[in-house]
């Protein structure tokens, strides 16, 4: 008698939520559950901009996978997935193969540089705890080198953030809090630090409420951020970036640090495995299965869901990944019961809050506009809620955000 084997790839919002939901609802003598993740810890992807700026320590952004899974019910494998051989129902990893009957792909996103020359090589992106750590250490090393060098290279103190979407703005919000501290540590005149936000679109946070956007822009400008809107980045090199001005002209901006926060794609494993996809995001069926694959679900940043109202994809969010995990759990249980009628996923967008550092934010929640402290408190409630939904009270108590004064 062979148990049915469910394999979940990725212990982020989508994957870990699916795992903890399944372990509650499934008897182990019926089913084997396997979770595969690159690291032995889960990280809060939505907090990575804080780790990158250095306003939150790495260990505050992570918790061990084994602290939330029931090891009697779930086998955890720490490995990097390289490919899925769908015909053989096997997952390839850096340490060997794992077979499956049902698969849930929740491997998250990677940076999308749209083929812009030099960005992959010379710009950082905020995509994992390791990537965040590299950004934080790089900025700090620029400041420390500047302090110690005889012939001062002023551009070391220039930081460029490519993209004025949510990730770019949230990172800038942290950065403006961090810079005064770095200047104090390395005895640097803060006026020498330059922070640019370069955005190709005609607006900051395109599509978001204009009054709230104005609030965010004024907040960041007051703290030293210079916005270059309608300015596409054309390339990057070790010295900085090249931006387009008008139709033909380009201009160089020298910088010690360039962070690319303007594009996200799904995991490259999607492409490697031959799924039909758009930037490694698979347009899944309503029940969240990959078209043509009855036993494979794809959720989170690797999936693409169309917002029928505007006929455009929903931006990938933790909110959607967590909601998809619930639907996938129910659909897996239905399949195990041999049912054919699966639940369709319908996102329930409760709102969006964009932080501006630890104590300020803008957002729309349940249709209501928020800015300043109420928005910031709401952001912490949302952050704690995500922790709670996967890790329960003990995880909230250990990692939650309670500094609301
Ligand atoms: P993730 O939660 O990113 O998890 C993917 C997991 O897979 C990770 O644990 C990773 O280590 C693992 N993994 C990846 N590749 C492999 C591999 N090859 N092998 C094994 N394991 C692998 N969304 C919101 O809703 N609200 C916000 O305020 C918000 N803010 C954000 C701020 C930042 C800085 C960023 C980067 C994103 C933000 N998002 C926000 C988006 C949100 O974080 C993502 O949409 C969400 O994390 C997607 O969930 P997921 O389960 O698909 O992937």
From TrEMBL:
Gene Ontology biological process: aerobic electron transport chain
UniProt cross-references to Pfam families, sorted A to Z: Pyr_redox_2 (PF07992)
Source species, domain of life: Bacteria
RNA-binding keyword on record: no
One Gene Ontology term of the molecular function aspect: NAD(P)H dehydrogenase (quinone) activity
The family this protein is said to belong to: Belongs to the NADH dehydrogenase family.
Protein name, entry field: NAD(P)/FAD-dependent oxidoreductase
Organism: Peribacillus psychrosaccharolyticus (Bacillus psychrosaccharolyticus)
